[in-house]
Amino acid sequence: MFETLLVIYLLAALGVIGLVLIQQGKGADMGASFGAGASNTVFGAGGSSNFLTRMTAVCATVFIVVCLFLGNMSTHKTESQWVDPTAGQTIQKTDDAVSEIPAEKGADIPQ
To answer: How many structural domains compose the chain?
Structure first.
């Protein structure tokens, strides 16, 4: 599940990047209004701005939703697959280690 969401996340990110780079700036519409071949576009006489804008919005929405799911899933993990769970364990002292410590005068020595 995590890997599938990660693939969707990366594809949505690449989709947003690609669609933003394909879109033209607002100043480019000025030439199209004076008959610069607006009817020869691939997406029809209406132009590609509506299609590209909607697809960018869809990819951005998918990106944000998947980002929230991945963040929620990664914070609620109980164990990490990258960290050794035994690395943080402490060594417990035994009774032998306690009996080797010299006692002060008048102190009770544990038996």
So the answer is: 1
